[in-house]
Amino acid sequence: MNTYHIHIKGRVQGVGFRPFVYKMALELQLRGWVCNTTDGVHIRYSAEEGLANQFYQKCIYHKPQLAVITDSSIEKVEFETFDSFQIIESQDSRLELSLTPDFSICKDCRSELSDSTNRRHRYPFITCTHCGPRYSILTGLPYDRPYTSMESFEMCESCSKEYTDPFERRYFSQTNSCQTCGIQLALIDPTQGKINLKQEEVFSHINEALEDDKIIAVKGIGGFLLLCNANSDHAVKTLRERKKRPSKPFAVLFQNTASIESQFQIGEIEKELLEGAISPIVLLTKKEAFSPLSKHIAPGLESIGAMIPYAPLLELISSNFKGPMVATSANLSGAPIVHGEELEGLFQLADFIVDHNRVITFPQDDSVVQFSPSHKRPIILRRSRGMAPSVFNAIENTDIDRLALGAEMKGAFGFSVNSNTYISQYLGNLGQYENQVQFERILWDFKNLIQPNLEEIIVDMHPGYFTHQLGKELASKENLSLTEVQHHEAHFMSILTERNLLDERVLGVVWDGTGFGSDGNIWGGEFFEYESRTIQRIAHLDYFTHLANDRMSIDNRLCALALAGNHREKLEHYFKAAEWDFYSKSIEEKQILTSSMGRVFDAVAFISGLAVENTYEGQSAMLLEQGARKASFDVDQFDPYQFTISGTKVSLEEAFDEMFLDKVKRPEIIGSRFHLTLIEIVRSIAVEGNYHNVAFSGGVFQNGFLVDLLIDRLGKEFQLHFHEELSPNDENIAYGQLAYANCIKKTKKHNLKELETCV
Asked: Do 78 and 196 belong to one domain?
């Protein structure tokens, strides 16, 4: 008999791993111990060699459902004797651990919640080792109750018995509580303050308010949500007015997937995601039949974000009300989600507040996912609750700890620490001061949580970005090295690293709305080559004038004007005389140039007659995609528009010539022909450069119709790579920055040393 030590890394805390190991050890009559540390799960036991290996294999291949193992090892150590098998106290060490996200309520807890014979019947905070908050309640590591905001809730005798019984589902469940010892609901009225009500009276009040078209703010897992009757035009319109959100779509909370099926096209893959541990908002297309949902939920769009209750509190509210509810983050449009004690501002939005006394340490919005229409490729639109913060495609061979601060429009920071990669939840548009404050606070809290030994900070090269300025300040203050990474190269590195392409030759197609280019222009329609740890910009959309700074991303007239070429005079009647003179002169002066594919989409949407302006980010692109999807039944009858590639420039001048002809004849086909044109541009560059691998990143590839077309038209000729664990939008910039600093920058240093040796 020998003594063995097993070390398992990955998402192995907060998922019932120790109880799983304990029960398996008892079944095999092993003696030893299992514990959590900040570098994973450690197991030490004595056994004959065959049994020792059998136990190891079972730990790895029969792991708990929510566990994700990134690395494991078994080694023979100095012999020890043990009296029994135990779960011992967690130990601290250097962080080498994936952090566990918040999980949706599991089937067992959902069943107990509605079981009148169960002692947790209708307890709004029911959890077990398979579900409930994790990341959102962390105060330290490893994941044990004293390092969470559950520390202040002392378990009653019944909960303690469950917690210490290895054959209970709540054995070592750090969030364990019940009606007797657990979290308490509170109803707060704007005039009366906190009202003393019994729990069921609170739920009755909520239900009456929803039926009366009131708006309520409810504290969820990651922050407060605003709820109202989704079938009521009056309620939804009132919510829009209060949030100052004129047309951006709202998500709708349904009681279950069965209630979604009556109104939306939903397949097994969408259903599985909605009912799974992540339970995000999923974009679904309405059925043609009449829908009772308010017309104000998603004006002009046929797809709506649908969700089901992922927290027991929401489950109880939904089961009482039975109808669909708008469920949106409790904040003014563009501001961070309210999550703590700053409740006064909520009364600008809600008629009353439903609060509770479990502290949220890491606030998060709901994650948002869609699937491409035909190939069902998952596209993450917002990576937050249930997904953040760990990334399992860790940056390879990290030699030092790094912090990457990401971009601006889609705030998210990243740490590379001890061979683990952490990308924060979505943190909003950092052009707004409130989001900057929230970003810094969460950054420091996260840094204190994982305690990196930072040596380097990476930022976007745009000097005006808040993250750029913050990074410079931190690097100077803490005497750290500072690296600037071009925005689109970071996008490219994010897809290369996520899809394990660093040893391949790859064509990168990076299309988005904006990014500061290394030549001082605004990029966004880029083609890169990656080979042997080197990135080269090989082509881009031909530059056109960037008009009126940020106004151009809102006013589609300006995008069309900048790209209209010889057809410019056809747009004059859309402008006032003074505007026309000013913008015409600006185009001739060409003061600022851009290659933005995002602005091309806006121009095409305007010429098609679909959108004059963007009242929220991506609105015109969504309408253009929707129009193209409608015409897709006969897309094979259309030809792509003409374009030319000369040197490194891709010109759409001929394409816009043809678009203006279609505008007069058949404007409804412009979107389809435009999408086909994009496919042919990619094909031409891939064929010319003899590329086998083509990788796509940037916000444009949130377009599911475009993704499907790429697969249909190019999938047999080339190996296509899309994001799967990260969003294609700017939320992936921090990940790409970390990868760039570790891979490209390291290579450049290495080459410099070689050069010095040669000299």
From this structure: no
Here the CATH number for the domain that contains residue 225 is 3.90.870.10
Q: Is 18 a catalytic residue?
A: yes
The single residue listed with the structure tokens 């596209």 is 379
User: Do the Cβ atoms of 679 and 710 come closer than 8 Å?
Assistant: yes
Contact partners, residue 242, CB within 8 Å, separation at least 6? 215, 348, 349
What is the C-alpha radius of gyration for the chain, rounded to an integer number of angstroms?
27
- Mean pLDDT, the chain, as a whole number? 93
Structural domain that includes position 26:
2-87
Q: Tell me the pLDDT tens digit for each residue of 156-202.
A: 999 999 999 988 999 989 999 999 999 999 999 988 889 989 999 99
Percent of the chain whose pLDDT exceeds 90: 85
Provide mean pLDDT across the span 664-671. Answer: 91
Q: Is residue 210 assigned to a domain? A: yes
SS3 of 385, please? Answer: strand
CB 129 within 8 A of CB 414: no
User: What amino acid occupies position 286?
Assistant: K
Question: At which of 40, 71, 87 does a domain end?
Answer: 87
Claim to verify: residue 79 and residue 192 sit in the same structural domain: no
What is the SS3 string spanning 60-98? HHCCCCCCEEEEEEEEEECCCCCCCEEECCCECCCCCCC
The answer to whether residues 196 and 344 belong to one domain is yes
Please compute the mean of the pLDDT values over residues 209-215 and round it to a whole number. Answer: 97
Q: Given CA atoms 465, 468, 470, 476 in this order, what sign does their dihedral have?
A: negative
Q: For residue 574, how many other CB atoms are within 10 A of its CB?
A: 14
The answer to whether residue 446 sits within a structural domain is no
Q: Give the whole-angstrom CA distance, residue 286 versus residue 302.
A: 6
d(Cα 640, Cα 355) in Å, to the nearest integer? 55
Last residue of a domain, one of 607, 641, 672: 672
Together in a domain, 74 and 189? no
Does 216 lie in the same domain as 77? Answer: no
Give the residues across from 102 on adjacent strands: none
726 within a domain of the structure (yes/no): no
Based on the fold, state whether residues 74 and 199 are members of the same structural domain: no
Instruction: Check if the beta carbon of residue 226 is closer than 8 Å to that of residue 328.
Output: yes
C-alpha torsion angle, residues 638, 644, 649, 651 (rounded to 10) = -60
Which helix (H) or strand (E) segment holds residue 423: the answer is strand 420-423
pLDDT at 343: 84
Same structural domain, 81 and 193: no
Per-residue confidence band for 94, with pLDDT thresholds at 50, 70 and 90: low
- Integer Cα distance of 727 and 381 in angstroms: 6
Which CA distances in Å does 711 have to 525, 638, 683? 20, 18, 12
Q: Tell me, what DSSP letter sits at residue 99?
A: P
Catalytic residue, candidates 2, 11, 18, 256? 18
Extended beta strands in 516-577, E state: 525-531, 534-541, 544-545
533: left (phi over 0), alpha (psi -120 to 50) or beta: left
Catalytic residue among 11, 36, 110, 358: 36
Global pTM reads 0.93
Domain count, the chain: 3
